Structures are given as structure tokens and as C-alpha cells.
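Predict the holo structure. Ligand: flavin-adenine dinucleotide.
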Amino acid sequence: AVGQVLVNEPLAKYTTWRIGGPADVLVIPSNQEELSTLMTVLKEHQISWTQLGRGSNLLVADKGIRGVVIKLGEGFDYATFEEDRIIAGAAHSVVKLCILAAKKGLSGLEFAGGIPGSVGGAVYMNAGAHGSDTSKILQSARIVLHDGQIVTYSVEDMQYAYRHSILQEQPGIVVEASFQMKLGDRTTIMAEMNTHKDRRRLTQPLQQPSAGSVFRNPPGDHSARLIEAAGLKGYRIGGAEISTQHANFIVNVGQSTAADVLELISHVQKEVVKQFGIELQP
Ligand code: FAD
């Protein structure tokens, strides 16, 4: 058994942008054994695969994804606490993990209370905010490599940089992560997390489908500032719009396609280069 198998499954409902065509096959392994079996089958038949987390940093093409898309199921959605350490399955919600950590008086995840991804996605992306990121707390990650081999990467092995990890060049599936936290005061931790969340509610279009910030911040500047200064807030192509609230967010205001978003990204890049000579990277 490899878990739940869904053929020609539309992916829009699995992404926060609510955009994306079908996966040839979406497989949801519910535990490590099913994932291992799946990887063996994929390797044997040389079938390409793509990993999906909570879809909060993904633009899935309108034509969808060929081959197999893997989404880790319920057996990967757990968190255990050992004094100042958290061990979490890759499918666990980061937002929920932050709340659990705060309740236990564990400090380190305050930055992530508003990042709507999975633990696996955060480890892969080096998700971060408010001056911190995943690399600051990750101790190690358990990863299933392309050939099915299971390895444990230390934080050094992850080769972290701004929104970057080694997994972006050397694919592997994060199945579990271990975080080194600090013992702290519950009330203080909760208060800091809530301050960040309140700020997001004021500055980000959280009621509209998006994938968060679209462009990386160029060194010493903010993409949102540049896009706003270029006069692009509210600029729309099809159903994709530069948020009027936060210029680095592209929101799906109706039936946006991936093509609309890509066209808008390219328009923003051209305008920002023309006006400020800076090349924004998605
Ligand atoms: P997905 O979007 O599903 O996937 C992203 C990438 O990670 C893909 O390449 C995928 O293959 C890979 N991946 C996912 N799971 C695994 C796994 N188990 N093993 C290996 N690879 C995997 N990001 C920030 O960094 N900071 C922010 O402040 C922030 N704010 C956001 C606010 C909003 C409203 C939204 C919608 C998004 C925001 N994001 C932010 C973006 C996003 O939440 C993060 O990048 C998050 O880490 C993505 O996790 P995910 O599980 O949704 O991954």
C-alpha cells in the first residue's frame, strides 16, 4: 500500500492561492512505511514526483503537474515535546506548532505564528519573519532522498541561507524535524507571537487567497516598498491583483489563472527594473 491515490486531481484546492491544474496522480501516504513503498515504486518505474506541503508558497501551473505529487498524510502530523526540544512530523501545521510551543513555555518559534505552511515546507524554504527563521531553531531533519534512502541532516547539512536550503537543489522529502527551543515565559512568548500576528492582520490581505510575499527582498531594501513606489498597488491582470494592502502580495480576486499571476509577476519585474534598475526575484 502507498496510501490514498487520487487520479487527475485538481490542485487548486491544495494551494492557498486557489490556483492550479490537476496532478496526474496525487498520492497521500499516511505513514513512513507507505512512503517508503511509494518511493520504491516511483524509482522502479522512473516516475517523476513533486512534493506538496500546505501549498502556501506554490504557484501550480494551469496545466497542472505531470507525474506523481506527494502530500504527506496524517501519520506525519504529530508533535512531541522533550524538555527544550520539539520533534514534529513534516505535515504538522507551523501555526499550530507555534501555539503549542508557547503554551509549553518554549521560545524560538514566535516568528512563525503567521506562516501558514507545514513543518516540512518551513524546513525546505527556511521560512522566516520578524528577524528570525527556521535555520535559527532547526537541530536536524529526517529526509527521504530520491533513491528512497532515509538520512538525518544537521542544520549545517541544510546549507541554509535567506529562504534557501540544500533541498532546493538536491530534492528530498522532509518527514520529521527536530527543533532546539529555549525555556521561556509562557506569557511573554504568547505576547510576542500575538504582536506579530496583529501586525500581519493590519498589513497583509489575509482574507484573500495569496501565497504571501511573491518577491524576495533585494539586499537592503523591501520588494513591497519598490512595487508600491512603482505605482503598481491595485494593478490587475485577469483575476490576479497586486494587493492594495501589501504590494508584495498578489491576490486572487476571482478566477485567477497561473498564467495571470505569471504575467503580473513579469510586469512587476519590468516596471521595477525600468524605474529603479533593480531585478526582483520571485
Ligand atoms: P508548499 O507551499 O506546499 O511548498 C513549498 C516548497 O516546499 C515546495 O517546493 C515543496 O516541494 C516544498 N516542500 C513542502 N513540504 C515539503 C516536505 N515535507 N519535504 C520537502 N519539501 C517540501 N513565508 C515566510 O517565510 N515568511 C512569512 O512571513 C510568510 N508569510 C506568509 C503569509 C501568507 C498569508 C501566506 C499565504 C504565505 C506566507 N509565507 C511566508 C509562505 C509560506 O507559508 C512558507 O514558504 C511555508 O514555509 C511554505 O510551506 P508549505 O507547507 O505551504 O509548502
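The pocket of flavin-adenine dinucleotide is lined by residues 16, 51-58, 72, 90, 115-118, 120-122, 124-125, 127-129, 167, 173-174, 204, 206, 210-212 (CB under 6 Å). The chain has a mean pLDDT of 97.
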